[in-house]
Specification:
The chain is mainly α and 132 residues long. The chain contains five helices and no strands. The protein has helices at residues 4-16, 26-32, 46-62, 64-84, 107-131.
Amino acid sequence: MVTDILAVSIGLLFSILPDFDHIPHLKRAFRTGRFGVESRSPLHELVGLFLVLSGSFAALIINSHLFLLTLSCGLSHFIVDFLTRPCRPLYPFSTRKVNLSFYPKELKRMFIWDTILTTTLGIMNLVVAIMF
């Protein structure tokens, strides 16, 4: 049986895992106040989605209770990015940017939007973790 703390930790890891590719771009992002699509490596978009799905299926084999948690946490990361930022959903196979423009462009308001959306999805993921 997976403890609640372990389940939340695993969910958090799957939620932030795709952003590890931002690490080399942190200095420029803090200087400019923004991350662009250029800060995303092939590990973030389509390949990152495949890695999250693969990790979720690995979790299914290890502990079936973790499958839905890892899947929902990993996918929620991509949902937040897609709704709040320009993305290249088929990168590295296509560099075409998709921008839904559902979010404010000003950095402070974007942060507030990100916080609300992330909190909402986080609560949903926490409910999934508790239920299963």
